[in-house]
Amino acid sequence: MAVFNHVSFDEHEQVVFCHDKESGLKAIVAIHNTNLGPAVGGCRMWNYPSDDEALTDVLRLSRGMTYKNALAGLSMGGGKSVIIADPKTQDREALFRAFGRFIDSIGGRYYSAEDVGTTTADIMIAHQETPYMMGLEGQSGDPSPFTALGTYLGIKAAVKHQRGLDSLKGLKISVQGVGHVGYYLCKHLHEEGAELIVTDIHQASLDKVAAEFGAIVVAPQDIYTQDVDVYAPCALGATLNDTTLPLLKATIVAGCANNQLAEVRHGEMLKDMGILYAPDYVINAGGIINVSFEKDYDAAKSTAKVEEIYNTLLKIFTQAEAQNRTTGAVADEMAKTIIDAAKK
């Protein structure tokens, strides 16, 4: 397994492989950059088909956290962790206690939190072994509603830039993935009068948004071909690729999934297709912004900070259009400027 020569290795500071025989824990922690402060990023639990795929995911996610935290104006570096296991596993006590001990051994260079496949309850278990956990119950708690709020505002920013509209009423929006974050996003969109088309691999989640928000349910493979104004990818990454991009009818892609582009060149493809893309690590920063207010938590201050995502995206869209560049390239450049300045 190559690490230093890995295609997604982007001068990462530290990559830690963790194994605990008794609990069965297999985890990878990636610390990308700590110029702005200790690395912070959630723990994803997924049944990866191979160790290589887990490594690719954690390297890409940790890099995204560096850029996300920088553009959100947070004094945090970027890191991420993944646990290679079935998210439906029931024996979580021993697993997350072992995970907490490994995080503690890193000595505060990385703070973890919940992510796909994990919950605040899991984080509280790990917290019994280490202080280096965030998004704790009784403090900032579940970040999902704040991630959804930022994504909703990001969609509004994209619609404002492209169409000059201040409302989403009557627009058709397809949402891929309606779990924790996707559900709250659908709630915001429905309340503003958008028409929803959704998909997910979990029927219970689909039934809920269909019943509460009148969403039309389609099969997972059919979400890309829907005749909609906005496509919101809110599941796992790399859904924007050579196979799916030619199927899109939406003129805006704006969702909360991480690493939506399979490759950087797919951002160029979106631009060439006339599709406005909201860089994922900008639009989905609401959760980590909320976590950043963990100490002396104040929901009002957190919400106000999340609302800044709207103007950040408008700035990126405007600059990308003026310079005839992809929105992703502009966002990356802005983030790198902040990170490099912090090092100096």
From TrEMBL:
Gene Ontology BP terms: amino acid metabolic process
TM spans (from-to): none
Keyword annotations: NAD, Nucleotide-binding, Oxidoreductase
Residue intervals of the Glutamate/phenylalanine/leucine/valine/L-tryptophan dehydrogenase C-terminal domain: 141-344
Tagged with keyword rRNA-binding: no
Domain of life: Bacteria
Active site annotation, chain numbering: 80
Molecular function GO labels: nucleotide binding; oxidoreductase activity, acting on the CH-NH2 group of donors, NAD or NADP as acceptor
CDD domains, A to Z: NAD_bind_Leu_Phe_Val_DH
Pfam families: ELFV_dehydrog (PF00208), ELFV_dehydrog_N (PF02812)
Record-listed NAD(+) binding positions: 177-182
Similarity remark: Belongs to the Glu/Leu/Phe/Val dehydrogenases family.
Protein name as annotated: Glu/Leu/Phe/Val dehydrogenase
Organism: Shewanella salipaludis
